[in-house]
Design a protein that fits this description.
The complex is a heterodimer of chains A (166) and B (419).
Chain A lengths: L1 E8 L5 H4 L10 H5 L10 H4 L5 E4 L11 H9 L3 E4 L4 H10 L3 E3 L1 H6 L5 E5 L4 E4 L5 E3 L5 H8 L3 H10 L4
Parallel strand pairs in A: 1-2, 2-3, 3-4
Antiparallel strand pairs in A: 1-5, 5-6, 6-7
Chain B lengths: L4 H10 L9 E5 L2 E5 L3 H10 L11 E4 L9 H16 L4 E3 L7 H7 L8 E4 L13 E4 L2 H10 L1 E5 L3 E7 L8 H12 L8 E5 L8 H9 L8 E3 L4 H7 L20 E6 L6 E3 L7 E3 L10 E4 L1 H4 L2 H11 L9 E4 L4 H9 L2 H8 L2 E2 L20 E4 L15 E4 L2 H10 L9
Helix pairs in contact in B: 2-5, 6-7, 10-12, 10-13
The chains are: A alpha/beta (166), B alpha/beta (419).
Chain lengths: 166, 419
């Protein structure tokens, strides 16, 4: 069960504001994390605590394919991103690196900034502890759940290869 | 139920008789691409997971294009990481400074993409090769690593939107205006998770460069890919570039489309996207007179020879307006050389433009044209997000090469018809 305070963002949050290209000259997750959300929420990294949760509107993570974006979010300590919808490359990048993301338009609309939210990744149930409201996110198909359970795409692939399946 | 063109390519590469929207499949890859920003992350993931071989060294392309020639010490380190990996694994299609160019102009030019291929690239504009009738899409660095290891990636089979093109383009109106107009119509998530399939009698009138520009920006509507049918123009383009066998796929007559959007090419006029979303479109005339500080002509969207010919035809005998910096960037070495041979380079320099070696540079605020607070650029690139070309308080207006060149001359947004 994940639990944290909510940082809320609008529709169409793009990868350029999640992690600006001026920092992409480093592949280091730790360095990237220091600048997470800097161009949309200057003090985000200073204000957030490990385990906090991001909630956003439609098309979160649109734009570039930079995996640096979910890497920065994951490494700065965000435990889960809930959005009305995700841009497709951001969606697969998050799954591939094991960052929990949940699609739930109702939760994205109703949860307010600063609320405390609990998330059960196994059931997809999101609970706003501040208001008491509960939401059901779209469940992952088994194939994707399997990748997440193994800690991401490469560990999944390595396990397959070691088992002689690739 | 019939399959779309995209679905047919995916089914063939998954070894399945048919697929339908929503199916999760593993497809064989014909080419895996990475650049100097995304490859180092993929290399770290690849090495970190303990892999020691690639599936096929001839089906991987690594192109150093984003921050090259390296803008700083850190970007030099990125390139070194990618370069060493390429050498260690004997990657055939490794392109360094001097041979490289912007990846999405370079790969088709070098004949590395053919119709019917499945191409993935750790760069969102990998969707460009849909122009050639290939399924191509952007992925992340972990996908790139997985692709290099296994020659496969997982995909959710996309539903599709059909864009029916009628008529033909006129005057200065180009492929860029077509795609900006479409994104304005359907929005930045109008094609989210979906493929965009371009059809209709208007397709035949579009040049390959127009098609590359259109497919390139499918991602700006959220699309997974943007694909054109294979026709005589495609075949002509492939001659002398691709000598391996390839397959032209066609959508079934009963293929299912979630939506059909019709665009009459005859009715289009020069179009721009105002800050800060590509969907924020206006006609160039509607915003004529808006002041700019910089004009950028180039990128994977509009750095091809026909783009530069158009820009040069406007800049010939004219001068870039005082107070405007105009930066012209051919997308590849071959295009650069062509510009020199045709006299375009001389036209640009005489007009007062900076004429640069190939690089993605300014498009993503990397180098070669970053802006400070309060500045505005007209740019033939593909994104105008907050801070895209530099400071968060700088602005990018997206436009065609013709509009960018006319605007560079006037110093304010100008429809080239009015020059």
């Amino acid at each position: 069960m994940l639990k944290g305070k909510v940082f809320k963002y609008p529709d169409n949050v793009d990868t350029d504001v999640i992690i600006p290209a001026r920092y992409l000259n480093s592949p280091s997750a730790e360095e990237l994390a220091q600048h997470c959300m800097e161009d949309i929420d200057k003090d985000f990294v200073k204000n957030m605590k490990h385990g906090d949760i991001m909630v956003a509107g439609w098309n979160f993570g649109c734009g570039s394919s930079r995996e640096h974006a979910p890497m920065a979010i994951q490494t700065c300590g965000i435990s889960c991103v809930i959005a009305a919808s995700f841009a497709r490359i951001f969606y697969r990048n998050s799954i591939n690196i094991g960052l929990p993301i949940l699609e739930c338009p109702e939760a994205a609309q109703k949860i307010a900034a600063g609320d405390t939210v609990s998330v059960d990744l196994d059931t997809g149930v999101i609970r706003d502890d501040t208001t008491g409201e509960q939401f059901q996110a779209t469940a992952f198909p088994p194939f994707i759940k399997n990748i997440i359970d193994q800690g991401g795409l490469l560990p999944y692939l390595k396990a397959q290869q070691d088992a002689g399946e690739v | 139920m019939g399959m779309t063109m995209t679905q047919k390519i995916l089914a063939a590469h998954a070894g399945l008789p048919s697929v339908k929207a929503g199916d999760l499949i593993e497809a064989n890859l014909d080419l895996v691409l990475g650049n100097d920003v995304t490859t180092p992350v993929a290399v770290n993931v690849f090495r970190g997971a303990g892999f020691h071989r690639v599936f096929d060294r001839e089906k991987i392309a690594i192109v150093l294009d984003h921050y090259t020639p390296c803008k700083d010490i850190k970007s030099a380190q990125l390139c070194k990481t990618a370069r060493e990996f390429a050498h260690e694994y004997g990657i055939t299609h490794f392109y360094d400074v001097g041979q490289a160019g912007i990846e999405h102009a370079l790969l088709p030019e070098k004949g590395l993409v053919a119709p019917g291929d499945v191409v993935v690239g750790a760069d969102s504009h990998t969707c460009t090769y849909g122009a050639q009738g290939a399924f191509s899409t952007g992925i992340g660095s972990t996908d790139m690593a997985a692709g290099m290891v296994s020659g496969k990636n997982w995909f959710k089979v996309p539903a599709a939107i059909r864009v029916e093109l009628t008529g033909s383009l006129h005057g200065w109106v180009s492929g860029k205006d077509v795609i900006l107009h479409l994104i304005g119509l359907i929005g930045v998530d109008g094609a989210l998770y979906k493929s965009i399939e371009f059809t209709g009698p208007g397709v035949a009138s579009l040049t390959m460069d127009d098609r590359f520009t259109i497919s390139n920006m499918a991602i700006e509507a959220g699309g997974k890919n943007g694909i054109f049918p294979v026709d005589d123009r495609t075949r002509e383009y492939l001659q002398g570039r691709v000598d391996r066998p390839w397959t032209a796929y066609e959508a079934d007559p009963d293929a299912e489309y979630e939506r059909t959007v019709t665009i009459d090419l005859d009715s289009l006029v020069s179009t721009v996207s105002l800050p800060h979303l590509p969907s924020n479109t206006r006609t160039a005339r509607e915003v004529a007179g808006m002041k700019v500080d910089q004009a950028v002509i180039g990128s994977c969207t509009n750095g091809r020879i026909s783009d530069l010919r158009v820009a040069a035809s406007i800049l010939k005998g004219r001068q870039v307006a005082e107070g405007v910096r105009c930066i012209v960037i051919p997308a590849t070495q071959a295009i650069y050389l062509q510009c020199v041979k045709e006299g375009l380079a001389e036209i640009f320099v005489n007009a007062g433009c900076a004429f640069s070696t190939p690089t993605c540079g300014p498009c993503l605020g990397g180098h070669m044209g970053c802006m400070c607070e309060g500045e505005r650029a007209i740019s033939t690139t593909n994104r105008n997000f907050v801070g895209r070309m530099g400071h968060v308080q700088s602005e990018v207006v997206l436009a065609s090469p013709a509009v960018a060149a006319a605007t560079a001359v006037k110093g304010v947004i100008t429809d080239p018809e009015d020059l």
